[in-house]
Amino acid sequence: MTKTKIIAFQGRPGAYSDLACRNARPGWTTLPCEDFYSTIKAVQTGKADQAMLPCENNLVGRVPDIHTLLPRSGLFIVGEHFQRVEHCLIGIKGAQVSDVKRLHTHPVAMGQVSGLIQSLHVEPVIEFDTAGSAEIIVKLNNKEDAAIASSLAAELNGLEVLRHNVEDESYNTTRFYIVAQEREIPPVDEINTMTTLLFKTKNIPAALYKALGGFATNNINMTRLESCMADGTFCATKFLVDVDGHTEEAGLKRAINELRFYAEECVILGVYPASPYRQLKQH
Question: Is pLDDT above 60 for 193?
């Protein structure tokens, strides 16, 4: 009998990361973890086969913890997933929108439903997690208390969705890295491949300009460039980069070789298939 695979995520059952796991890895068992460290640890110890780690959102930007934890983890990026964030107004059975006086959710989600808060004239109540706020609504068992969370959180907690898609912006989307203990590098001739790498520039004038020059001259499309301070100093900076292409393709290989010449260190975090979402958004 084939063992069911497990994918770990940070948050409570029904969190958007849980939803991302179910969409990206249908049939797998999802494993909720308290924080990103525990999520990564689950894969390191073999408790989970893979982990779903949010890396950026098109409204609030990057997820900073991932920049620090992932490079030190020894895990590799084996895929990516884009999850549309569709906030729902959730209440207990029998509740109506007109009953709601208090709105519970995570602070980021709260900032994404300001229109709803103003139209309903409700009191915002900050909680630690979107899915966790749904669990709180169950415990309160009061029609005047509602949560902002996913429809999955409502389903798992036996709650009712009072209104779908209450977010201010319909394009709210989170991108995730899917990580594992071993690399899963696609064939070099497979189209739509991504490469993620982390490098530290030398502390010399124009180091970043020179390090990235090879990507331009070799016609390599860079989809992401993020900086973070290195070693707790203000003199050295690390950069996380996502580019289109495979490390064994001639153009990207030349670009990385040129990058290494101007960098003190360069680590390939993953070579993996690009999400179909990228092609959909191009058309």
Answer: yes
